[in-house]
Amino acid sequence: MSYNRAEYDTEALRQNLRLVRGLVGPERKICPAVKANGYGMGAVLMARIMAEEGADYLAVAVAEEGIELRKNGIELPILVLGGIPERDLVKAVQYDLTVGIFHFSTACLVDYIAAKLEKKAKIHILLDTGMHRLGFLPTEEAKGEIKVISEMPHLELEGIFSHLSQTDKSAAFTEKQIALFSRFTDDLIAAGVALPIRHLANSNAILDYPAAYFDMVRPGILLHGFGSGSEAGRELKEVLSLKSRIIRVHDAPAGSEVSYMGNYVTAEARRIATVPVGYADGYFRSLSGKAEMLLRGKRVPQVGNICMDQCMIDVTDVPDAAVGDEVVLWGVQDGASLSLSEVAEKAGTITYELLTSMKRVPKYYYFEDED
After folding, report:
1. pLDDT by residue (tens digit) across 355-364?
2. What is the 3-state secondary structure (H, E, C) of 129-197?
3. Do residues 213 and 11 make contact, with C-beta atoms less than 8 angstroms apart?
4. Range of the domain at 120
């Protein structure tokens, strides 16, 4: 058994989805992103909760993620946002995954596969409005190709989407992407291409750019409690807490060199505690000497280089600290809070990376009807 615990508040997850529904209204569809194993919390559980809360679609990054959901009884439409290798397209169609199309040749192959399987494959067109990652460029040639795709007999063109890349940086760039998406899709519709579902808004766009809502929105990190500093964003509740326990406390005299490389040297006698969590648990080495943890409701500094499996904290200001005491790496303890956003900033990364890095930390889930 591990001393470490990743604790997930499923009611907070539900409340964050309800916030999305309140913002976008009942007329729009919601497509939660459950990729990367549900941002670390477990894709199957997250998908089930999203389905219970009335989600209309689910989004994954790769076909394997969608197939896992299907094998676990998830029946909602599942959109694969990323590329699918040709060898996996048969499985994608067999498991009724909705394929994101960004090459004309892929559409032709999916149409051929669906014909052989005597099925009609569901697809969404991916448009590149400025991120330069995936998608058809918004050209006249692309309009012609999409028109042809829409007429392929074994494809059901359900919708079209794009990705906003600077919602947390540039309003001007974001508004440019929204306008381009709107104009291009309007042209397609005028040319006779049916596009029942247009979707563009990611988490920050849901909070800050109503013009990006169109027919469906795709909340991701927002569902886990992180968004912009807008009024709506302040209502979000963080889903994840990371906790551990002290396994050793000792007195280190002045001049003690703590952890690998001895980068931290005690200027005076200090009480040092060891916590069995390290960078193999997703507590990044880049946090060394910068992070804090909660102990008995107080913030205490992490000291010395973070190791693969342990790290040290200075508990001098909590004189009764003892082996077995709970420490919170991010979350809430005795009225004090430490946000994952703060930890991510100190690590020089983003919340997404920390959420998805706790590969070996045991997961515990808390539900509304549990004590």
Report:
1. 999 989 999 9
2. CCCCCCCECCCHHHHHHHHHHHCCCCEEEEEEECCCCCCCCCHHHHHHHHHHHHHHHHHHHHCCCCCCE
3. no
4. 31-223
Residue 8 annotated among the catalytic residues of the structure: no
Number of domains forming the structure of the chain? 2
Same domain as 259, residue 204: no
Mean pLDDT within 263-268: 96
C-beta separation of 134 from 82 below 8 A: yes
Same domain, 219 and 274: no
Does 260 qualify as catalytic in the annotation? Answer: yes
- Catalytic one of 71, 116, 147, 260: 260
Q: Are 306 and 297 in contact (CB under 8 A)?
A: no
Q: Is residue 17 part of a domain?
A: no
Question: Residue 100: CB partners within 8 Å, gap ≥ 6?
Answer: 79, 80, 81, 82, 83, 123, 124, 125, 126, 134, 161
Q: Give the domain CATH number at 245.
A: 2.40.37.10
Give 77-96 pLDDT, tens digit per residue.
999 999 999 999 999 999 99
pLDDT band for position 371 (cuts 50, 70, 90): very low
Which one is catalytic: 35, 57, 122, 243? 35
| Residues 117 and 208 placed together within one structural domain of the fold | yes
CATH of the domain at 192: 3.20.20.10
